[in-house]
Amino acid sequence: MRTGRDHWRTAQVLAAAGIGFPATVAGADPEVLADIAAARLRFPVVVKQRRSRMGVGVIRCAGRDHLEAVLDSLWRLGDEVVVQEFVETEGVSLRCFVVGTEVVAAARFSAVGDEWRSNAARGGRVESLVPDGRLAALAVEAAGAAELGVCGVDLLPGEDGVVVGELNPTPGFVALEKATGADVASAVIDHLVAIS
């Protein structure tokens, strides 16, 4: 379960599998990491605590000074971080809930107000989505690359195409079930029974 919970490990696994993912850099020294991020990524960038979830510990930085201040603050707290390119999606993300080799539910999440993070934990609107074959295949491929039999795959529809934003090995599904009417819980139980 380390892959998915750890954003750096997830980036490595997806890159090795040739799956589109936001360009990501990591490092232990905040000044060096800021230098690497500024050289390899364009602003704005997103700083994530390596094990962040539900949008907590995820900060968009508009420029170099902001990035340095955020990295220094998190480093002083002892947090490990990654820095990623910011994928402009106009506040939209797509969540595919993968069980085994199937997408059992999917939804479109939209950020509300001034919030740029679209997840339900940040107040995002959730609407049912029927993913086309390409999106479903990408989600299943990403889950398989990370060897996760049950996971939420967050997809970012950017101007250069859809990339995997994150993998969540312990995804909540209350908002997803409410929006889609899918019985995600039963699908997970059936899967666990089948593999036990």
Key traits:
196 residues; alpha+beta; Dna Ligase, domain 1; D-amino Acid Aminotransferase, Chain A, domain 1; 2 domains; four-stranded antiparallel β-sheet
How would you describe the overall organization of this protein?
The protein is α+β, with helices and mostly antiparallel strands and 196 residues long. The chain folds into two domains: 23-85, ATP-grasp fold, A domain (Dna Ligase, domain 1), CATH 3.30.1490; 92-195, ATP-grasp fold, B domain (D-amino Acid Aminotransferase, Chain A, domain 1), CATH 3.30.470. The chain contains seven helices and nine strands. The strands form two sheets. Strands 7-6-5-8-9 form a five-stranded antiparallel β-sheet, sandwiched between helices.
Q: Could you describe the largest sheet, including whether it forms a barrel?
A: 5 strands, antiparallel
Structural class, from helix and strand content?
A: alpha+beta
Order of helices and strands: HHEHEEHEEEEHEEHH
CATH superfamily of the largest domain: ATP-grasp fold, B domain
The total of beta strands comes to 9
Shape: globular
How much helicity do the residues have?
25-40%
